[in-house]
Amino acid sequence: MKFYIIIPAHNEEAFLEATLNSILNQSLLPQKVIIVNDNSTDTTEKIIDDFVIKNSIFQKLNIASSTKHLPGSKVINAFNKGLSLLDNNYDFIVKLDADIILPTVYFEKIAFIFKNNPKVGIAGGFAYEKNDSNEWKLNHPMNKNHVRGAFKAYTKSCFKSINGLQNAMGWDTIDELLAQYNGFIIHTDDSLKVKHLRPTGKAYNKQAKLLQGKAMYTMRYGLIISCIASIKMALKQKRVAVFFDNMIGYQNARKEKLPFLVTPKEGNFIRNLRWSAIKEKLF
Question: Do residues 97 and 151 touch, judged by C-beta distance below 8 A?
């Protein structure tokens, strides 16, 4: 199967070389890798240039967006700029972070998953991060059927049906909800152990703490589901403040009457899906 990779990169000199080498070591290589150098002030661009020389699959795109590292808007803006350079001659497309080391068979297995079941629209492995003892440990999401935004692969039909990625916080939840709305399956493979070199959220701006609640509002979760989801997040992160940050963000979004990211019909589907998952875990 043919596939493309897009890598947004902002000041990634500590990790980018390892990420690009892990791509070159794949048993199934991509046709193109677009590395979007987003306003980097370190040696990120030089690293990209070295790999462009090393292998023709790599291509650099320089852009100048905000210097603030906020989840959602900055990274998806960079992704979409990279997407504009690509044609439609692919079977699946990958959004990859610049601080990831993939197992050598990663894309071979992703291709097999997509080819084996046309209903699968999004696929990926699981993230492992180093703990205080320098051991690689699974950092699983609350939902084991969720593919982390750091390494998401989409079939072309799924990617087109969800109209690409939303330029907003929560994009890597909205994509899966809309994929399911359009009849696709999310597939996770626990044999694909991905090394995440920088723990989630470490580079994010402090302004990001209220964005999760705003995302819940714009996804039409409703107050009750947003409360339940926020409690689960607070318990997982062992930080009570997470719950209050989310609720403040949600209420601010409602007061500001922020535009919704999904239609009323999609929102109804999303709430039913969330309630089904909650009931399944309770009973």
Answer: yes
Provide the 3-class DSSP secondary structure of residue 274.
Answer: helix
Tokens describing residue 251: 């209420």
List, as one string, the DSSP characters of 116-177.
H-TTEEEEEEEEEEE-TTS-EEE---SSTTPPPTTEEEEEHHHHHHTTS--SSTTHHHHHHH
Tokens 């500001």 — which residue? 256
Distance in angstroms (rounded) separating the CA atoms of residues 50 and 17: 9
Q: pLDDT (tens digit, 9 = 90+) per residue, 23-50?
A: 999 999 999 999 999 989 999 999 999 9
Helix axes 171-181, 264-282, angle to 10 degrees: 90
The model scores a pTM over 0.85: yes
H or E element, residue 62 = strand 58-63
Looking at the DSSP bridge assignments, the partners of residue 60 are 35
Q: What whole-number distance in Å separates Cα of residue 94 and Cα of residue 183? A: 20
Query: How many CB atoms within 10 Å of residue 149?
Result: 22
pLDDT score recorded for residue 178: 96
Phi/psi of residue 224, each to 5°?
-65, -50
Tokens of 253: 């979004």
Tens digits of per-residue pLDDT, 84-115?
Answer: 999 999 999 999 999 999 999 999 999 999 99
Name the residue among 181, 256, 190 with its Cα closest to residue 218.
256
Q: How many CA atoms lie within 13 A of 272 on its CB side?
A: 9
- From 201, 27, 209, 188, select the one nearest 102 (Cα to Cα): 27
Nearby residues of 153 by Cβ (< 8 Å), 6 or more positions away: 3, 92, 93, 94, 107, 110, 114, 122, 123, 124, 147
